[in-house]
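batch_manifest entry 22 of 60
target: Pyridoxine 5'-phosphate synthase
source organism: Ferruginibacter yonginensis
requested by: lab member K.T.
priority: normal
notes from requester: please return tokens only, no post-processing; we will run our own comparison against the previous entry in this batch. if the run fails, retry once and flag.
--- input ---
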Amino acid sequence: MTNLSVNINKIATLRNARGGNNPDVIKAALDIERFGAHGITVHPRPDERHITYKDVVDLKKVLSTEFNIEGNPTEQSFVDLVLQNTPKQVTLVPDARGQLTSNHGWNTIEHQTYLKDIIAVFKSNGIRVSIFVDPIIEMIEAAKTTGTDHIELYTESYAKQFSASPNEAIAPYIKAANKAHELGLGINAGHDLDLQNLRFFAQHIPVLHEVSIGHALICDAIYLGLENTVQLYKRQLSY
Ligand SMILES: CC(=O)[C@@H](O)[C@H](O)COP(=O)(O)O
Ligand SMILES: NCC(=O)COP(=O)(O)O
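--- output ---
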């Protein structure tokens, strides 16, 4: 079975628009857990434009499902935040400051030594590590040498190509997932997954451990309601 981790960044975006506490990010996270999600994902960016560092501290105190914190460990404040709040999983994403959204995976060959060192720090604190990678065989092979537990396949190119050509869109992900599985890496996936493309992805990557989904899921919730939406996404993962 593939776990659904709901990324709540966009709930914080809406809250921050008015500077108050509506919608309440903590309440929404607890509701999402109650509605059946297997985990909560946040990506506190250095500019705190959506999830704030305080949100991470507050969430850690109350969540009962898997807490997954995403971010770039070249920011020391991010490393400190993760170590102080010990989530079940940290997902390392090589985003620059101010980037609109994540748009590439790690070059695990070029950054192999750096990743190895920082991953060891998180792992020695009992935190599972996942690293964000493109579906490229060489990047998966080098990911293995960093000591990471999981990889997260960056699915934007799949999502972009899916409606025109699902089989072509999924092909590199099947190869990458097979390689990762052969190397003993856990497999997560995320970015632009939605109600249309999720089932096909999960069906073709049977060893998929977890998907993290935010933008499309929160958009769907505007029309369908949060409880119904969480359940619709879960249904795409159980076939
Ligand atoms: C790591 C990743 O794929 C991202 O999707 C990310 O968590 C989304 O970040 P934003 O919500 O800031 O676009
Ligand atoms: N890791 C991907 C994630 O958390 C959510 O990405 P998106 O669904 O907001 O594109």
